[in-house]
Design a protein that fits this description.
Length: about 130
């Protein structure tokens, strides 16, 4: 009888801890990198609005003609990882963010000129919700 009580009590503790951990994962939201915080942390009413805001933010923060190396260093310093892009002379920068029940994949593509300037830049957000 004592062993059954211990097993039952242990099961309750394990199930309770699992429930708390699951609830935490559903409500946890990662902070934005510092270079994005001011413009994107204010929140938007829909993912379509957030997608547009991120795209516009990228174009404003890293304008055509600016130094691509500095832009890439700032973005990777914020936690994005650099990957080879499908387009020549460009780099894809990716970052995954946990946002409650959703996951968000942020992608910035920077195309460079021969002298290291930004020739084109694009930002895209891909939300994945349960």
């Amino acid at each position: 009888m004592i062993i059954l009580g211990i097993l039952f009590g242990g099961s309750v503790v394990v199930i309770g801890a699992g429930t708390v951990l699951f609830a935490y994962q559903l409500t946890r939201v990662d902070a934005y990198p510092a270079f994005m915080e001011k413009d994107l942390a204010k929140g938007h009413s829909s993912y379509d609005e957030t997608k547009r805001a991120f795209s516009q933010f990228v174009k404003n923060a890293f304008p055509v003609g600016s130094d691509a190396r500095i832009a890439i260093a700032q973005i990777t310093g914020g936690g994005f990882r650099a990957e080879k892009s499908d387009r020549p002379n460009s780099v894809a920068l990716l970052w995954n963010r946990h946002a409650g029940p959703c996951g968000e994949r942020y992608a910035i593509t920077i195309e460079q000129t021969a002298d290291g300037k930004v020739a084109d830049v694009a930002g895209q957000l891909y939300p994945v919700c349960l």
